[in-house]
Amino acid sequence: MNHHFTITGFADEIGPSLTEQIAVLQANGIRHIEIRGIDGVNVAVFSDDQAHAYHETLTAAGIQVSSLGSPIGKITITDDFAPHLAKFKHVLHLAALFEAPYVRLFSFYAPAGERIASYQAEVITRWQQFAAAAKAYPQITLLHENEKEIFGETPEAELALFDALADDQVQTAFDPANFVQGGVTVFPHAYDLLKNRIAYVHIKDAIASDGHVVPAGFGDGQVKKVLAALAAADYHGFLSLEPHLAEFGGFAGLEQTRVSLPPAAQGDGAQAFSTAAAALRKLLQELDEAWQ
Fold this sequence. Notes:
Blueprint: E1 4-9, H1 18-27, E2 32-35, E3 37-38, E4 41-42, H2 48-60, E5 64-68, H3 82-98, E6 102-105, H4 120-134, E7 141-145, H5 155-165, E8 170-174, H6 176-181, H7 186-194, E9 198-203, E10 205-206, E11 213-214, H8 223-232, E12 236-241, H9 268-291
Parallel strand pairs: 1-12, 2-5, 5-6, 6-7, 7-8, 8-9, 9-12
Antiparallel strand pairs: 3-4, 10-11
GO molecular function: isomerase activity
Keywords: Isomerase
Organism: Lacticaseibacillus yichunensis
């Protein structure tokens, strides 16, 4: 069995400068990027000039944009929506400039002391407006991420949102670590419920007992089983590294982390990203060997 995964990643975890981000991506043999921030500026507030310049730099380096990791939907459900919707429309415009096929979004937080589930109707109404705005960009798919404490933090809530929208332009960015941190069994439970809506995968794992993030395969996110199931289902898509690592105790055991990093890209972020990349490649190698 062959898999058709393409590795990408949140390169702002490497460091703020695009030069450093590109250097570490290239050192790890990665030719795609999920843009969340560059030079300490969030992607949602880039100007057109910034977007054009960054896109030219990435293209010259042989790197394509897989997705914009936007913060859209990461506000309280009772906050004024009009300016947020305007920001989302700007993000869509930027995604077109970057030739990004995906934009990541969230489904809102509850006011303090309340439960977001009680705001389901308002969440759906706002997402209907997101989906309507995206119709002007049929080449872009909206990705709902199962972030902890937002409406769609569980697979059941995500399905409720997807069913209400009934829109194939809205899919999920499946994040195993977020499910672990929310007390959800990733595989087979979350995977089986969402498998028909998985258009993108965040490669992040976590320990259930305390929620701390570890490289893929070292936690309770059943990442290897998820990847095996996706490969068996002929998933053609991105695996996006989102390390969220500080100091990881298993670093020495990942021989493949010994990539040659440029002198300007030797910081903790570069090492953490390379560790995450090595862990993912180790899982993929194990899958390949199991299929031979």
